[in-house]
Amino acid sequence: MDSLAEKKWFVYLGDHHEGPFSVDDIQGKISEGHVSTENYVWAEGMTDWKVMVELDAFHRLMESSPLPKVSQASFNIEGEVAPLELQLELRNPQVDEKQLKDATADEVKQPEKIETSPSGAKNPLQASLIRIAKVSSGFVILAGFLTAYLQGHLDPLVHSSAVQGSLQSLSYLVRPHLLALSEKFPYLEQWVSPIPAIEDVSAEEYDELKNAAQGKPETHGVRLSIALSSLDSLSPSFYVSTNLPSGAQFVIFVVGVPETLLNQLSFSTHVPVTVTKHLGKTQAIRSSDGKPLPKGEYNVYLLPHENITPEIKNLLISVQSALVIAGNNVKIPPELPKGIKVLSFKNYFLGGARDATYTHRLKEFHDKFREKTRSELVEARQFAATLKNQLDSTITTFSSIRKGKITSRQRNQWEGFHAQWLSLQRGLDQEFIKWTPEYLQKQIFYGVIYQQIQQFGQDIAKVHGYQHSYFVGSHDLKTFDIQFGEALSSAQSTLVQLLSKIDQAEKIPPSPNGMPRKEGL
Predict the structure, then answer these.
(1) What does DSSP assign to residue 295?
(2) Is 515 exposed, middle or buried (0-12, 13-18, 19+ CB in 10 A)?
């Protein structure tokens, strides 16, 4: 009985709802002819309106409704309420003319509206009809917009910044669903991009990224592409796109083309990149000292990461080297790891614009560079001559002092020479310390010759060390002669190689633009 008296029910009455009522209240309204058992009702907890006869709570009212039932067919297809005259006639056929006029006047005063329950639930029939009308209208509107777009009438609007921003936001919401749809229907791939729109790459490279991300690697083959971000040419970053699964890892090597770099002989670095949902981006690339890249041309190589998964490694076996595809003129630079396949290759001009200022400054740098390389060969010959004198002097002095049994006089003579020899050797060593591998690679064009000079200096020091031990330590004479002979032979061989490389460097013809070359050294 308590449930029958609980006021929780709302009743839909044609164009509005009333309530809350109890079941007893609704029974009274049925007796008065205001409500029918075919009216829709709703209570808290229901997902939508339901006809009264469908609910157990109203079963006892089914046989106590003496009046005609109000049919929900009083709604037309636009969701509008049927004429009030018809509703009143269905409720009470004996209504008088005055009631009809008053009711009609009240209807005219009421604004047309779609009633909802306190929770926002619409009349079910009305909501369905409105939905159909909206869908139909939507297709008509969409067709109209599409026609106008194809005819170019919407170009000024579509290309405006506001619309472009809205379209981009919309694409982020819609794209995942379109991608899922294109997986079920592969022919849609030509219209659905597998990667999001990227504002900081050229249209051409975006198409390359998009194409590389399409298709399955098992059926279409592995596809890979590199694209340059235009956000910062001084500290560039690169996009990598592929149709390989998410988690694929790569390394991008950036190697400068020597004759194009401004104020620097060479440049190389590498950065890792991981692909997620067909796309990855590297961090910004700068010099090791934090400075921007030197302006000039760069070759960019995409290689597999050493930690790449076996699954992806197997898929990459069938990929042909990008350098082979590019042609025989493209060679693997020494900066790249040996024996690793180059998956993709691009050439870019980085560090700023290739303008007249760059051309002028590059010419100045090349003029100074040519002079510098000539000075390097002159300096190399001077070092070679100085070291040869060091070797000759220690050999001659040792031979002249080493006679018969070692005496105190001999030891004193050697100590005097040793002190003078070390004084000159220390000066050479201080210079050699500066010649780190990085310095010789980046600052010295004929670095390989300077490495040979270093080696020659070390060989001479070893020869002199054996000679010094002869006078100051105890040793087996036979063993000493063997070790000393090997050290002397190595130093003399290094000297021959050094002089040969200097001669070779002087005879190598310059490049077509007059720059010195060092191929074959």
Answers:
(1) S
(2) middle
Task: Say which residues have a Cβ less than 8 Å from residue 517's Cβ, sequence separation at least 6.
Answer: 508, 509, 510, 511
Buried b (16+ CB within 10 A) or exposed e, 260-293: bbbebbbbbbbeebebeebbbbbeebeeeeeebb
pLDDT value for 280 = 95
CA distances from residue 431 to 384, 392, 434 in whole angstroms, order as listed: 14, 21, 6
From residue 94, give the alpha-carbon distance in Å to each of 34, 70, 98, 101, 421.
14, 15, 12, 14, 136
Q: For the chain, which residues make up each domain, given as ranges?
A: 2-128, 160-192, 200-354, 358-507
The CATH number of the structural domain formed by 358-507 is 1.20.120
Share of the chain above pLDDT 90, in %: 40
Q: What does the DSSP 8-state code read for residue 215? A: S
- Is cis: bond before 83, omega within 30 of 0? no
pLDDT of 299 higher than 90: yes
Confidence of residue 215 (pLDDT cuts 50, 70, 90): confident
Q: What CATH code would you report for 200-354?
A: 2.60.40
CA distances to 15, 99, 279, 346 from 81, rounded to whole Å, are: 6, 19, 55, 69
Distance of alpha carbon 83 from alpha carbon 15, whole angstroms: 11
> Distance between CA atoms of 382 and 373, rounded to whole angstroms?
14
